[in-house]
């Protein structure tokens, strides 16, 4: 191995992630309604094995060779029936790296209000879909739950690593914001990763709007 080998290896190489990760992508669907901009969400089927009944954006695990946009469009059609050609992609937004080795890529897309008539929910995956006005998230403060992410270390070979048994392992923090939208039987709870993505998007859009007016 020499520098020339390393140079050849690095030519055109795209950065990846160290360690095995599950790459996923979701579509953040925007809908321009009569009363302003809305975000479209889906509620997972209560019969799902993982996260039953949770509110989320359309999306799922990326297949080999897929881009985040391709995955988000495929999953959107599979889950709620909106075909790819009816979604206008505005671009890839930010990604979230979770401690569970999940990389969540987000893609912003526009669905015309009249195309909501094409909705056809996959009953195995989706219970219902609904939209929330963008202004709701600018006017509503979520319930905020902050928690520590700790490492569980048992029987670690401290001597082999050359460190003391009272070694302080790194810990992290995470947040689980919770929004309640609607009343009574119509109330939906948007929380966790989906709420974090929504808050981050709204925050960045509001920052950009303020900068434009400066």
- Give the uncertain stretches in residue-range form: none
Please identify the structural class as seen in this structure. Answer: alpha+beta
Determine the mean pLDDT.
92
Q: What is the tally of helical segments?
A: 5
* H/E topology pattern: HEEEEHEEEHEHEEEH
Number of DSSP strand runs: 11
**Helix amount:** 10-25%
Shape from CA axes? globular
Q: Biggest sheet, open or closed, and with what strands and sense?
A: 7 strands, mixed
- Calculate Rg over CA atoms: 21 Å
Instruction: Give the terminus-to-terminus CA distance.
Output: 54 Å
Strand content: 25-35%
Structure, described:
This protein is of the alpha+beta class and 214 residues long. It has 5 helices and 11 strands. The strands form 3 sheets. Strands 1, 2, 3, 4, 5, 6 and 7 form a 7-stranded mixed beta sheet that branches. A two-stranded antiparallel ribbon has the order 8-9. The protein has a two-stranded antiparallel ribbon with strand order 10-11. β1 and β2 form a beta hairpin. The longest helix has 22 residues. The mean pLDDT is 92.
Question: What are the salient characteristics of this protein?
Answer:
214 residues, alpha+beta, 7-stranded mixed sheet, two-stranded antiparallel ribbon, globular
Layout of SSEs?
Layout: H1 3-10, E1 22-33, E2 36-44, E3 55-56, E4 59-61, H2 68-80, E5 87-97, E6 102-111, E7 126-133, H3 134-139, E8 146-149, H4 158-161, E9 172-175, E10 178-181, E11 188-191, H5 192-213
Parallel strand pairs: 1-6
Antiparallel strand pairs: 1-2, 1-4, 2-3, 2-7, 5-6, 8-9, 10-11
